Amino acid sequence: MNIRFRTLSMLLSLVFLGALMGCDSNGGSGSITPNPTTPGAYTENDFTNDPTLRIPLFHTAVMFLEPPNEVQTTDTHEAGSDAVPYYTDALTEYRFCWEDDVANAQHTMVLGDAAGNEVLSVVSNEACVTATIGHGNYTMFLVHDGLTIDTHAVFIRADSGGDDEGIQPQYNQNQVNLLLSSNKCGKCDLTGADLENAHLEHANLWQSNLSEANLSGADLKGANLNGVSLEKANLENANLAGADLEHANLHEAKLKNATLVWVNMTGVDCWKANLQGASLENANATSASLVSANLTDANLGKANLTGTNLGYAFLKKANLKGANLTKANLEYTTLVSANLAGADLGQAKVTHTNLSDATMVWTNLTKAYFDHSDLTGANLENANLTSTVFETVNLTNANLENASTSTRPGPDFPRSNLTGANLNHVKLGDCWFYAADFTGASLKGAQLIESLWNDANLTDANLAGAYLQRGDFGNANLQNAVFVWANLERAGLVGANITGANFENADLSNAYWVDGRQCAEGSTGWCY
């Protein structure tokens, strides 16, 4: 059994290790004072109102430990200390531990027997003490260290034993009442607590356990939820605006239509969480895990998702406008019809991702890596494609008009499908289009100098007025392609299929023709 002593900032626990049959070995009284038999929580008022009250060691007590210079009207001992009358009815081994969030706290617990002898003592944040306690009456003295002027609400709670350090107090209604009355309950166990529509604005629930709790519709604006466990908790329609959720556990949590604007979600784990329709505008989810999370229709505008793992997540029709997804993991992520306008996906990993019909205008894709992803019908107009890789990507009917690079090299599209894609007036250059399919694509006025088109398919593609100097079209299929007024100076077309291609007014100066010969300077419309 763990019996815990806890203030709002500290925890003292007694651990029941097992009943030992035998005689009283610690000087307890052979006659036990009558006591309550129903487990509950007892306060200083109960003890001062009934001086004969003595409770079992496994019952909960709540004391208010005042500093030495403060005198309380209802007190169980002298200023700076409190006394809790206990009894036990069996020889039992206990472990006593006191945890305090204040590292230098030196509060003391002294357990005395009926004869006034000290049985043991424990200092906060120091080593636990294990002792065998015989049946009889005992008094537990809690002594304030006097280092602060704060009065602490001390919770003394028992539960089943185990060899685990820093065990959390078990949930009971008293802790819920404490939270609702004081707006703070750090490191509390509120598993399964019913807090529907609770008003917990700026509440301090640091490192508490709220697994499976019902917080639907709750007001948690600005709350301290750092390190809390909200596994399978219900937070639907809850307001967590500005809350601190750093390193929180939200496994399978329900956050449908929840408000999480400006929240700190650094390092949060939202595996399989339901955030459908949730608002996460300006949220900081740096290095968070949203693996398999449902963010359909969610609003993540301007959210910071740097290094976030969104693998297998569902973000259909999600708003990521202006979001920072630098180095994010988007493996197998669904972003169908999502809005990523102005978003930063620099160095993002976008493999096996579904971005069909997504909006990516003015999006930064510098050094992003796309592999076997689907961007059918996606709009990448004015996107930054510096050193972007699109390997075996489906860009059918995608719009890349005016896409550009800030520096060279340009993007690579090996084995990608750009059938019917719009690349009009792109400013890329030094690209690699090996075995890419540009059937029916439009590249009018495109600036693609020194690009490699080996084995690419440009059947029926329109490259009118394109800048293709020093490009290599070796073995490419250029059937019925349009190169009217295109600049192919010093381009290589050796082995290319130019059946039906239109080179009207194209500049072929010093280009290498399909048969390997070099065209003369000034060759226009054909190789001379």
Secondary-structure map:
Elements: E1 2-6, E2 10-19, E3 41-43, H1 44-49, E4 55-56, E5 60-65, E6 81-88, E7 92-100, E8 108-113, E9 118-123, E10 129-133, E11 136-143, E12 152-159, H2 173-182, E13 349-351, E14 369-371, E15 389-391
Briefly characterize the structure:
The protein has helices at 44-49, 173-182, and strands at 2-6, 10-19, 41-43, 55-56, 60-65, 81-88, 92-100, 108-113, 118-123, 129-133, 136-143, 152-159, 349-351, 369-371, 389-391. It is mostly beta strands and 528 residues long.
Primary descriptors:
528 residues; mainly beta; Jelly Rolls; Pectate Lyase C-like; 7-stranded mixed sheet; 2 helices
Overall residue-averaged pLDDT value = 87
Name of the top-level CATH class of the domain at 265-437: Mainly Beta
Pattern of helices and strands? EEEHEEEEEEEEEHEEE
Give Rg in angstroms: 35 Å
Given helix and strand content, the structural type is mainly beta
Measured between the Cα atoms of the first and last residue, the distance is 96 Å
**Spatial order of the strands in the main sheet?**
3-5-12-1-2-7-10
Main sheet attributes: strand count, strand direction, barrel closure: 7 strands, mixed
The appropriate CATH architecture of the domain at 265-437 is 3 Solenoid
Return residue spans where pLDDT drops below 50 for at least 5 consecutive residues. Answer: 7-40, 159-170
CATH superfamily of the domain at 265-437: E3 ubiquitin-protein ligase SopA
SS summary, helix count: 2
Gross geometry: rod-shaped
How much of the residues is beta strand, in percent?
15-25%
**What's the β-strand tally?**
15
Fraction in helix: under 10%
What is the fold named in CATH at topology level of the domain at 265-437? Pectate Lyase C-like
